[in-house]
Amino acid sequence: MFAEKTLVSIGMPVFNGENYMRQAIESVLCQDFGDFELIINDDCSSDHTAEIAEEYVEKDARVKFFRNDRNAGCSLNVNLTIKHMSDARFVAFIAHDDEWVSHFLSTLVPILEADDGLVAASGGIQAIDKQSCTIAERQMFPEFQGKDNYTMLERAIARFKLIGPSACLWLGLLRRQALDKTNLCFPGIHTHHVTIMTELACQGHFYALDETLYRFRKHDASRSQRLKKDSGFKVPRWVPKETMLAWVDTIPLTSIDKPTFRQRAIEIIEKREAKETKRMQTLQRREKTAWLVKLIKLILPVGLQSRIRILVRA
């Protein structure tokens, strides 16, 4: 007799994750739903990530560990993690520094099992700090909920950034059959969760549950914080027009006229780029007058400072 196929395959792409990796793994292994595998894919970490992963491989047969031959970068490491996953019916991803609530899988699996038209299901996100204490509760899927495919694509293109909006649904449960039809992480677009979820939207519907299931950790070393620090918000945050259109051209639009949508995409991208150009020009003007602002603070009363700063930045 052949063993039945694992129902859920969970991916954990990781790079230098020793600080919070144990909490993430434990939150998966402590699920009240046990039919899963956990795939940890290390992107050539220089810390103790490999040792921690191998420790859990010894403890639990559901944990499998792989290590890239060379550093691939965050988005490509997601693709490589997916390649190591088994042919499970559903897939999910957890960052090495985040956590799941104990009923994450037992809540979402029945939802996707009950409706073949659903390609993804997710709950809300709880922001936590370094000590796993709650910072805030939030739902982050309004741009995906209750919209037709055309509107969904327009919104995704209009909001694409290198430092992009988090997609709550990416942090839920996905149907593997639908995921395999996407581009996965498209070259040149760092916000891979947005490209994948947008392409999934062309294949089916999303289910957004009004309940916190995922705990997103905020800390100085997280990827989102590193992107903000590296850019300083002083470099263009939008994905280039050529890259965006190359991605749009790969999307299988069965219910939408592709030439019409492509023209609409160009209009959205050009409008977005004009807005970004204006933002960059404002930053450059502020940098040029920064010395004057400092001088004003030193020699003028507080009441006059704000008035002069307004004139300087105008």
Describe this protein's structure.
The protein is an alpha/beta fold and 314 residues long. The chain has 2 domains: 8-220, Spore Coat Polysaccharide Biosynthesis Protein SpsA, Chain A (Alpha-Beta Complex), CATH 3.90.550.10; 257-313. It is built from 12 helices and 9 strands. Strands 1, 2, 3, 4, 5, 6, 7, 8 and 9 form a 9-stranded mixed sheet that branches. The chain is globular, with a radius of gyration of 22 Å. The termini are far apart. Mean pLDDT is 80; it is low at 161-166 and 227-235.
Concise summary:
By secondary structure, the chain is an alpha/beta fold. It has 2 domains: 8-220, Spore Coat Polysaccharide Biosynthesis Protein SpsA, Chain A (Alpha-Beta Complex), CATH 3.90.550; 257-313. The protein is built from 12 helices and 9 strands.
List keywords for this structure.
44% helix, Spore Coat Polysaccharide Biosynthesis Protein SpsA, Chain A, 12 helices, alpha/beta, 2 domains, single chain, nine-stranded mixed β-sheet, 314 residues
**CATH architectural designation of the largest domain:** Alpha-Beta Complex
- What is the CA-atom radius of gyration, in angstroms? 22 Å
Give the tally of structural domains: 2
Number of helices: 12
| Helical residue percent band | 40-55%
Q: Secondary-structure element sequence?
A: EHEHEHEEHEEHEHHEHHHHH
Class by SSE composition: alpha/beta
